[in-house]
Amino acid sequence: MEEITFTTGNYTLIFSERERKGKRELTVEMHRGRGASLSIPERVEVEGEMLPVTAIAKKAFLGNRSLREVTLPVTVRKLSDWAFAQCEMLTAFTSLREKPLKIARNAFDDCKSLTDICTDGRAANGFSKLLAACPVRLSAGYLLAGADIGSSGWFANWDTRLSAFLDEDDEEGYTNVVLCGEEDIDASVPEFVKEKRRNKCALCLMRLMEDTELQDDYRAKFTGYLLERAKGSPTEEAWEVIITEFADRMEYYELLARLGGITRENIDAMIADLSSQHAEAKAWMIGYKQEHFAEDDVFDQFVL
């Protein structure tokens, strides 16, 4: 039988055909080509019939290091094992399907740049970041594998996993990472610990930003973890994450203020940390100081 292919942009997709419930459908088995963006077709013509594309096969895009954005049509209902694993540059994944997409728990293994998994064709938002965090930051790909994504139970499981991660010793995993060659072999324990704390802070920030179904005990725990690492604390990973990962996202500065992480004691040091690359944030911070701490400045002039 002649190979079933379809070319879109810089990619040629290779399909297999099967019959399900008396109807013919296609699975993307592999690909040829390289490119930053890929939209999987909804249907492909085979022998004069337009067949729906319903699945991405095992390892179909494994190790593609140029792919940055993927969009799946409404017809695709399944991602198999390692479908997009080791796509190191992949940042955004979008499914237009309104019904739950069946995702293998290791479909996005080692997609270290992934920031958004968008469902229902919606634009990137706080929830899409929580989804992307499952395989990337939480090591919890199983949270993508269930049919209950977005339910109260799903959010509870996400929070339970983050809580356990916060409780984990910061040095745990260092030996395995070095032995497996996942990091620079010269990386020191302090560097590993600092990066792990930054990861924990980023997760807390994302969850507090998208706080749907967030229970009070977890809210307090995630907030406390951040405030213990705010500017002026013995370690300042919460502030470091905001000015590096969320540098131009003003909502994160506003969140930190609501949580109590911007104070009379640390605001000047925070302003000093903001370079010309953070012009909007610096202007906001100066305005925040004038609005909330101006009275203190005036009072200080009379203190002998």
Coarse morphology: elongated
How much of the residues is beta strand, in percent? 15-25%
How many separate domains?
2
User: What order do the SSEs take from the amino end to the carboxyl end, as H and E?
Assistant: EEEEEEEEEEEHHHHHHHHH
Class inferred from helices and paired strands: alpha/beta
Evaluate the radius of gyration. 23 Å
SS element count, helices: 9
Give the low-pLDDT segments. Answer: 298-304
Overall number of strands: 11
Mean pLDDT metric? 92
Give an overview in words.
- The chain is an alpha/beta fold.
- It folds into two domains: about 1-150, Leucine-rich repeat, LRR (right-handed beta-alpha superhelix); about 150-304, no CATH class.
- The protein is about 35% helix and about 20% strand.
- The protein is built from nine helices and eleven strands.
- Strands 1, 2, 3, 5, 6, 8 and 10 form a seven-stranded mixed beta sheet that branches. It has a four-stranded parallel beta sheet with strand order 4-7-9-11.
- Strand 5 and strand 6 form a beta hairpin.
- Helix 1 (about 125-135) packs antiparallel against helix 4 and helix 4 crosses helix 5.
- It is elongated.
- The model is unreliable at about 300-304 (pLDDT under 50).
